[in-house]
Write a structure and sequence with these properties.
By secondary structure, the protein is an alpha/beta fold. The chain has two domains: about 5-15 and about 90-220, HAD superfamily/HAD-like (Rossmann fold, 3-Layer(aba) Sandwich); about 20-85, DNA polymerase, domain 1 (Orthogonal Bundle). The chain is built from twelve helices and six strands.
């Protein structure tokens, strides 16, 4: 019998196909102001907290808006996409339903914002599956650190050693491993260049949730 009692999922790029949104926000936000989008800019702001990225953007382009105003502009642009266009990845519902049927506790550890998360969960009918939803903003550290995963496990009431984390980025796999948890790397198109790293560092790598339904990884990585 598997000792694993809880599943902790990332949101963006893992259970929803949303990684394109921030590239679109970056592109639309800058081009509306007549500024070309560069890889240097997008690479720099990727992974930053909203406020840090906003301050960097203000300093770099000498905008007159406040940090709060820039952040709200970004969130409003992203919310439209999350509410209207972002979809769950194939077979996500089926896999989450299977975990529920097996009485596995399900948590979410996300770097997203409640303003974005609520409409996308609602529009995709995903909100019913999660016992706890936790944000990196609550712990003040990004996913390269174990804090968000430990916090989510605590909220679920499950020992970290009995948790399996599903992530699409190397930083998340690293942070979850530091927390003493088993890890499953889920492929996302935005992380194509990181496939080798993900395969080397995760306990299991899958291309999609159909694989998780076909093979009982729950016992495989106990």
């Amino acid at each position: 019998m598997s000792k694993n009692k809880a599943a902790i999922f990332d949101l963006d790029g893992t259970i929803i196909d949303s990684m394109y949104v921030w590239e679109k926000v970056d592109r639309d936000f800058l081009t509306q102001r007549g500024i070309p989008v560069t890889k240097e800019y997008t690479d720099t702001v990727r992974g930053m907290f909203f406020e840090t990225a906003a301050q960097y953007t203000i300093d770099k382009y000498h905008f007159t808006e406040s940090v709060e105003e820039i952040v709200q502009i970004w969130l409003d642009m992203a919310r439209y996409e999350y509410e209207k266009n972002v979809k769950a990845k194939p077979m996500v519902h089926e896999y989450l339903r299977e975990l529920k049927n097996r009485r596995i506790k399900i948590g979410m550890a996300t770097s997203s914002n409640p303003y974005l998360l609520e409409p996308v969960l609602c529009s995709n009918a995903l909100e019913c599956y999660f016992d706890e939803i936790c944000y990196t903003s609550e712990v003040g550290k990004n996913k390269a650190f174990p804090d968000i995963y430990l916090y989510t496990a605590k909220k679920l009431g499950v020992n970290p050693q009995h948790c399996v984390v599903f992530e699409d980025i190397p930083e998340g796999i690293c942070g979850a491993s530091k927390a003493g948890m088993k890890t499953v790397a889920v492929f996302d198109q935005a992380s194509t260049e990181n496939i080798t790293t993900l395969k080397e560092n995760a306990d299991k790598f899958v291309m999609g949730f159909d694989e998780l339904l076909e093979v009982d990884i729950w016992n495989e990585i106990s």
